[in-house]
Amino acid sequence: MIIELKSDVNDAQANKLAKELLAIYMNRGDQKLIVTSSKMKGVESHYEGMIEAIHVFDSDIQLASRDFSKSTIPVKVGEVTVGGNSSNTLLIAGPCSVESEEQIEDTARFMKSIGITALRGGCFKPRTSPYSFQGLGEEGLKLMASMREKYNLSIVTEIRDATHADMVIDYTDVIQIGAKTMYDHGVLRKAGKSQKPVLLKRGFGTTLQEFVQAAEFILSGGNPNVMLCERGIRTFETKTRFTLDLCGVAYLKEYTNLPVILDPSHAMGHAYGVPDVTRACTAMGIDGLIIEVHPDPSVARSDAAQQLDFSTFGALYNSLKPIAEAVGRKIV
Amino acid sequence: MIIELKSDVNDAQANKLAKELLAIYMNRGDQKLIVTSSKMKGVESHYEGMIEAIHVFDSDIQLASRDFSKSTIPVKVGEVTVGGNSSNTLLIAGPCSVESEEQIEDTARFMKSIGITALRGGCFKPRTSPYSFQGLGEEGLKLMASMREKYNLSIVTEIRDATHADMVIDYTDVIQIGAKTMYDHGVLRKAGKSQKPVLLKRGFGTTLQEFVQAAEFILSGGNPNVMLCERGIRTFETKTRFTLDLCGVAYLKEYTNLPVILDPSHAMGHAYGVPDVTRACTAMGIDGLIIEVHPDPSVARSDAAQQLDFSTFGALYNSLKPIAEAVGRKIV
Amino acid sequence: MIIELKSDVNDAQANKLAKELLAIYMNRGDQKLIVTSSKMKGVESHYEGMIEAIHVFDSDIQLASRDFSKSTIPVKVGEVTVGGNSSNTLLIAGPCSVESEEQIEDTARFMKSIGITALRGGCFKPRTSPYSFQGLGEEGLKLMASMREKYNLSIVTEIRDATHADMVIDYTDVIQIGAKTMYDHGVLRKAGKSQKPVLLKRGFGTTLQEFVQAAEFILSGGNPNVMLCERGIRTFETKTRFTLDLCGVAYLKEYTNLPVILDPSHAMGHAYGVPDVTRACTAMGIDGLIIEVHPDPSVARSDAAQQLDFSTFGALYNSLKPIAEAVGRKIV
Amino acid sequence: MIIELKSDVNDAQANKLAKELLAIYMNRGDQKLIVTSSKMKGVESHYEGMIEAIHVFDSDIQLASRDFSKSTIPVKVGEVTVGGNSSNTLLIAGPCSVESEEQIEDTARFMKSIGITALRGGCFKPRTSPYSFQGLGEEGLKLMASMREKYNLSIVTEIRDATHADMVIDYTDVIQIGAKTMYDHGVLRKAGKSQKPVLLKRGFGTTLQEFVQAAEFILSGGNPNVMLCERGIRTFETKTRFTLDLCGVAYLKEYTNLPVILDPSHAMGHAYGVPDVTRACTAMGIDGLIIEVHPDPSVARSDAAQQLDFSTFGALYNSLKPIAEAVGRKIV
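Structure tokens for the assembled complex are given below, as produced in the milestone run.
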């Protein structure tokens, strides 16, 4: 249940009420909200004087629910708005991992040259084996930051765990929380205390309900700038790396108010299928795409099979424009 | 292994060789083929005089493999070709079940009026409960056949099991084999003896490997006119009915030579998401779509939640044209 | 809803009522039942004179529900009863496929020698590839029948599809319906018309709800002798062939009244794990086990990896007895 | 590849070699090991003088592989050894969450009275919703520690994320890493630096390969005391909370050298099925069980549906003894 408080209720009163209801109080400036468990369906009558409106929900998808906000919330990534009144589909691209200055600068330069505004690149890699490349760490973050300065790109990089969350939040423009990290309360709470946009990926074993509830941790922590990213779920099919859940995307568009970003690279896991699947994603009418691109995928230190080379990515980028247009969207 | 025989080898010789190799002999008119298990990688030297060429495979996807036929095979549905040199995306539409003459005629008339050429409608329904509507049976087939006569539509209807397979094959233009029937050897073998086009759906628990191998039953039985239909797989996600596997579609396009048809209705299971998902499918550059449409979904006797009404379907149909065009395809 | 009719209602009256309710009428001798859709929760008052009792259900699991019959129904396999008042755990064993007279006779003789009473052996194999061994067909059925005569064993063999269902039902003692066939209405209806015990396997992509509903086809067709067989479901894990669902077995024991048989061989898919998993199954307190055993697994024409040799099986059999005893059961 | 170094190689030399091979050096006292990626299959000849033995692997399951250590490694939990030469099945029991002093003390007293030696109880709960009970935090840890003092029980409690990992490690006897935390590098690395036993749970969307690789993070970090815990994976079946993967357990027993603990409570998710499934687990011949027990499950603040009351748990405990004995094990 979300209780909108009257504007004359002060923080002390609000906090007292929240405590009584075992609930979370959020002062959003223009809105003062108390969010309780969704099992609570109303308040005792003596509180009514403090209350502007009450929103009741059938699950703990509350702040993210389209029943709470009819329109998709706007999130600013650099100078680009996704969601809100925009009809933008933001294209984020770059390598899986930052590997060297040359590699990331080649990529940044190419992205800039074709009009891309947001550069991805992982520095703390959540690898499944301790014996493979773990990322460049802070050295990678510095390289990403210098690409932002040199090429005026928004940078998107991933927090692996809470031990370096503050550092990543400090350097990055978009806080990426990956599929393996999305249940990490330490990370979710830190992202909730920032105001930077968050790209929250769905875990590959995560239901849509749990996924959006993870977003609620960030939203209720005080950061309204959350984008949901579907990147493929794990199924019995192994010819492809994961199974991109576009039916689930239709659900997210219908029932939540957060922008939706799609990651066809991790879902497909093989470069040959990325262009077709990316075109499919674009035709869904979504708010963004994140694609893995590498100057020379054959030597990439992680995700070599699925990264596109510049030429394939350039051709793909051009092919997306008329599709986006056909569904009333614009690739930015 | 597929052995292409020299044209002067006669059927008796070919059958003798097939028997020795525990293999299947197919006289395709222009080609005489022997198909062995893929575990066999060559033949003894004394057979070489009979052999034009040998194709070796790493799995039992053989006749359907793109390594055997570089281009997608053409299949004719009425006057429309899918696959081959065409760039057609065939739109098949109609109700889940034929329920009454009025219902199917309303639908047929509407489809004709907007330019649709292929009408779906189930008569033998593979329901999961014995206590729900099981379809009109032969009465339904007669209604479908009369729609073909009156409106010049190709009709697409489903075989539920081998007990009525001959009857359905006799009436229909496209033999539909559903997700629950695709392992049914009785049905696959009967479809293999026909020359009518077959729409073979992937089971919801079926790997891509098994799915294409089911097509091999039909192909090796003598019927080259097989279309593969992805309609959603069963995963842990239950907000939607199934999970449409577009990564799997990318695999099928890359590795098989059969036309690919997509069924967004069964995957999504809820009308609200069908338009977006259908647009995504179209942008994949596929050979066809099959969509459930009903004059009044709220009273449908099966799949009520997922069928589109005429107005929604008409709008969707129009929105598909520019997307198809953007990927070099034409909706027919 | 199940309506128990008064004993003086005759078949004509009962059939008339069933027709009015779009329901199924069953004269079980001691009980006259009408089974409607579970959506129906009551009847109009003028029928009340015909009605002894009404059972209302929340899903189409009705005849199989423990709310309808408090105790597990008894099913006789040869001279052995499973379910009912028995505390038997019936051990069915034998090869995946009947391959030759020598192979099946070696097996039958061994089984007899250690006290096994039920012999499995497939004759019509639902293979996923047309290029692998498809079973001996009727020749295999004859071999199985002759093992019954010679060694006084109950024989258990599988129907692949409706085209040979009558033949298999004629030869066999237990009608096995496999994981790929369990949605086959042609087969389910034929099994429903027999009185022979049916071993119905769960499909690997089938929910428990659908599985028990498939049993309802047989039960409502007139055959009360249905045993449910869990044999592993398909999940994302590929180190083992399938994932045996023992939590699901706990559900079946709690909510249905049908005996439960477990198939660890197909679930595990590798001989090394079959003994441990079989012991686990036994400790669940279930009504039967079906295990694949072959005189020489290394040369088996199907499922070679998972079949046990005689020595391993003999040792396993002995190890099961104290476990069964610990849970109040007896291996028979 | 694991390189066993000769005993006269000193740490400086070993570290130098490890750096050259991009590998991890571990001085285990009795063994000096260098662990490289499993892609590496040998070393250049000039290193040979330093090398005692080389172990090559086909995947990054290396330190945990039964090819590296033939017998299950021993892990001490309080005074109880699991694995090694013991034939113990350790029974860990207690509530999902520590809720109050009275609740945890009632439980501890009961456990002590029936002979249980290890008490579980969560203090930092990885809930999926921010609006439900998040655990008592350090207050809970203090209560657990006081139960250890008063009742001489080993305490088992969970790290939720890296922000409080040091605190939990400090208080607890067994470091529990839950299904949602098992990819958390921050937590895995901290557990690797401790010498306390670790109970590592498999994620519900995690393959066996990834699961054991997560253990490799801890092992290669320097802590050899890792126990693997299977607690159910997420599948399409929703009648039960998860699907316990006993086939996977057979794999872990065959291919890894780590003790295996099973958690039937989370897998089943409903108290009615926990006893049967626990008995099944016991018959697998495993090293431990972890069961949720609460003085009054109906008022539990988390996992209310699946916790057993004292009376049910006591009866279950007694029923396990003869099953364990039947498979050569002893419940401790």
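The longest strand of chain B covers residues 88-94. DSSP finds ten helices and 15 strands in chain B. Further analysis is deferred to the final report.
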